[in-house]
Design goal:
By secondary structure, the chain is mainly beta. The chain has one helix and 13 strands. It has a single domain, classed as Beta Barrel (Lipocalin). The longest helix is centred in the N-terminal third of the chain and has 10 residues.
């Protein structure tokens, strides 16, 4: 499903012209507190994401080419389609090794971001509701439909700094997973941005997990962004390493 939707969206790209770029949702915890202008499109692509985890005597390495298509609906609303058309799992336990390749689950989401000022000392926020469908391959899917509701709150004390707080609830198989993640960012010149973050996660099944790290983003021109990030486990639960590279492109209409 995700692959077909992505191909349809990419086929339409030559018919649109570039406009002033919005904020991208990549990288970092949460998402931008703004939405795309009506009728515009953005593609945010992992190149890929890497995750390393040891669990039940097995060492898993997973590579995920995660994709997000954002569509401006007008006003304070934005639609999103997400998924991963390609995943690779490398599993090792003692002398045994196994690998698998396949696609992950697909998702649809709706973002609401009321307008706000963008000057020094400004506060903005956005909310995102998402449904993830259990249509991925066995090694890369949730196995059941998941419902998510999250919010990002952002405060800019001055033109060079921005602080955000991301809160999210996932509901899967009758269990809740809570995430709370503060992020502290700074711009460097006109094109660079860096940030540090800490993700605190409470899973009803797997217990508490803390990830800490940060990332960088660099814009090329006005409509392309490259990013890189890495998170490391703090404590005993969760993936020991999570890292990735990304490419984001904004497509819009001329006024």
């Amino acid at each position: 499903m995700k692959k077909r939707l992505a191909l349809v969206a990419l086929a339409a790209l030559p018919t649109v012209a570039l406009a002033d770029p919005p904020d991208f949702d990549r990288p970092g915890a949460g998402f931008a507190t703004s939405v795309l202008p009506a009728g515009t499109l953005a593609l945010e692509q992992g190149l890929p994401t890497y995750e390393r985890q040891r669990q039940d005597g097995l060492l898993d390495r997973t590579y995920t080419a995660d994709s997000l298509i954002r569509i401006g609906l007008g006003g304070a609303w934005e639609g999103q389609i997400g998924g991963s058309a390609w995943n690779r799992l490398e599993e090792r336990g003692g002398a045994e090794r196994r690998h698998a390749v396949g696609h992950g689950d697909s998702s649809v989401a709706l973002k609401y971001a009321p307008s706000g000022t963008d000057g020094d000392g400004s506060f903005t926020w956005a909310a995102l509701g998402e449904v993830t469908f259990a249509n991925g391959d066995e090694d890369f899917g949730n196995g059941a439909r998941q419902y998510s509701l999250g919010s990002t709150m952002q405060w800019k004390p001055d033109k060079d700094h921005q602080n955000t707080l991301y809160a999210n609830l996932d509901r899967l198989k009758g269990r809740n997973t809570w995430t709370l993640a503060p992020t502290f960012g700074r711009t460097f010149g006109e094109n660079g941005m860096g940030y540090v973050e800490m993700d605190a996660i409470h899973d009803a099944e797997d217990g508490n997990e803390v990830q800490a790290g940060g990332g960088l983003a660099y814009t090329i021109g006005d409509h392309v962004q490259l990013d890189a990030y890495a998170l490391h486990r703090v404590g005993r639960h969760g993936p020991s390493v999570r890292a990735g590279l990304g490419l984001s492109i904004f497509f819009g209409k001329k006024a």
